Amino acid sequence: MCDYARVTEFDADVFVVGGGPAGSAAATMLARKGWRVRLYERDRFPREHVGESLLPASMPVLAEIGALPAVEAAGFLPKYGATMVWGREPDPWSWSFRESSPQYPHAFQVVRARFDEILLRNAAAQGVDVREGCRVLAADAGPSGATLGVEDGEGREHTARARFVVDASGQAGLIGRARDLREPDPFFRNLAVYGYYQGGSRLPEPDANNILIESIEDGWLWAIPLHTGLVSTGVVVDSAVGRKRIGQLGAEAFFRERVAGGPHTAALLEDATLVDGPTVVRDWSYSSRELAGEGFVLAGDAACFVDPLFSSGVHLALSSGVLAAAYVTSALNDPELGHAAAAVYSEQYRQQYEHFRELARLFYASNRTVDSYFWEARRITGADESTPARLAFIRAVAGQPPAGYERAVLAHGETPRTFAEAVGAIEGRREQRAAAFDERFSEAVPRLLAAAPVLTADARLQRKPVVGEGEFVWGQVITTPERPEGAPVSDLVALVIARIDGSRTVGDLFDQLGEGIAADTLERLRPTLAQALRLLHVEGVIERFDEASPS
Question: Could you give the 3-state DSSP secondary structure of residue 434?
Fold first, then answer.
């Protein structure tokens, strides 16, 4: 085995373990900042991987890391939305990305072998030292740096050291498993079996390139058309039931039986041939207690994995890779900032993860097309709407137009009554606050207050790390008990907010800014500042009073 004795010289500034979307994105962004980055990948690309369906939210991330042109040129099928057999009606229904994402009205159905290779080669082209066929056997990280035990393609073992390590090792979870950080999700106790069919038919236009998701008696099916003529097909079932049935039938017979149980999926595959698989994935949804610490950060599936119902895996990997790189850069440049940024990285990654988790939980609970043990066990009863994750999701859904895809998919099912009431209450409060503004707004006296009547702590302006150009920087955020992660505000808006004391009108606040700002500049800024205060009022951060001395 490798000699893990301390090595005094660093072989790189940053090690990245894993060459999937999270690792490639993190390595690319770190190399751009001038760091010496070495990426270790166990396989040699191209290599097969499941998870072909992308989301429009990933398109700007691909653009940021410089890979979007190559992805667009690869010939992948554009994905304009999804078709589902789910909810209250047994017939298929579709939703479209253009309804909620006009800038990026489509994503792609990618062949992961090619897609992941594009990202890895993009990282190499931007200066990353990519080492394929190298298996990381062990990792240790702390204030003095990170040490890896590595086995190269010839079976030789050696020790390597860097100042920092990004664990993007996927579900293998190198650091998370070694430190026992992983916690299984009690709600998503599922397993998946997937394979690839050649041939078959497509959904009718305009949905021909959509992913098809179909609920069946004991789970659900996916069918993703690929530009190669293959169809990625999978079934998600209860873990315990699936293991028992696979033990009785074998994986292939179980897989074929479940595919045949979905009439719409089976119809698409009627003339198709199973050419690859099936493969059983038993390790399912989980999160990690710690996502970032001294000398390390977890990204992508190494940190968290949520049920694939809404194709969130690649997006979480890409976005967490970019965010992890910003954290590492900040930690290496400024330990004080890095310590604070570790908490913000965790907050922001968990916020994205929990958004998809809550959407999946609610969507599972809303299905009424099938009445069975599987679906009854996944009903949400007595859900606590006051948890931070649920509140964040409710706010996001309440902020969407009815055509927003979360609103669209939840509308087709029967969501818990308390959830619908919570969304309606937030929307009602926002409408009331928006309607409260009139031409006398400049005479109103604003005050920072709690976001909900039952809470006592006031909103606060805090100095906190915010994401800048590829790194965290110190900035100003408004936090409330309902939004502890805070909402970043510009320095000028922060200057106005800092002067809110419950006694000065908005007009007074603006006039006082004129002491240090040219009159013509202040005049141009007034509409922007007013709009910022209006938005904070609508969100419940700032209350408006028409009396000079509010009680």
Answer: helix
- Residue ending a domain, among 248, 281, 314, is 281
Do 203 and 289 fall into the same domain? no
Domain that holds residue 167: 12-74+110-185+285-345
How many C-beta neighbours within 10 Å does residue 551 have?
5
| Cis-peptide into 46, omega within 30 deg | yes
Whole-angstrom distance, CA of residue 324 vs CA of residue 286: 19
Answer yes or no: do 239 and 333 share one domain: no
Is residue 229 located within the same domain as residue 247?
A: yes
Is 84 a member of any domain? no
Q: How far apart are CA 218 and CA 211, in angstroms?
A: 20
Smallest CA-to-CA distance from 321 within 52, 80, 49, 61 is with: 61
Q: Domain count of the chain?
A: 4
- Does 225 reside within a domain? yes
CA separation for the pair 1, 137 (Å, rounded): 10
Task: Give backbone dihedrals phi and psi of 151, rounded to 5 degrees, phi first.
Answer: -110, 120
H-state helical runs in 110-154: 112-125
Distance between CA atoms of residues 176 and 156, nearest Å: 25
d(CA 427, CA 433): 10
Sheet holding 487-489, edge to edge: 460-467, 472-479, 487-489
The answer as to whether 330 is a domain residue is yes
Indicate if 424 and 446 belong to the same structural domain: no
| Residue 24 phi, psi (nearest 5) | -65, -40
pLDDT digits (tens, 9 = 90+) for 390-413: 667 777 777 776 667 777 777 777
Nearest to 107 by CA among 259, 209, 33, 2: 209
Tens digits of residue pLDDT in 99-118: 777 788 899 999 999 999 99
Q: Give the rounded percent of residues in the chain with a pLDDT score beyond 70.
A: 86
- The two structure tokens encoding residue 14: 């940053």
Last residue of a domain, one of 259, 281, 303: 281
Domain shared by 124 and 241, yes or no: no
Which amino acid is located at 512 in the chain? Answer: Q
Residues 520 and 410 in one domain: no
How many CB atoms sit inside 10 A of residue 261's CB?
Answer: 16
Q: By CB neighbour count within 10 A (0-12 exposed, 13-18 middle, 19+ buried), where does 3 fall? A: exposed
In a domain, 325, yes or no: yes
**In Å, what is the CA distance from 100 to each residue of 189, 349, 538?**
31, 22, 21
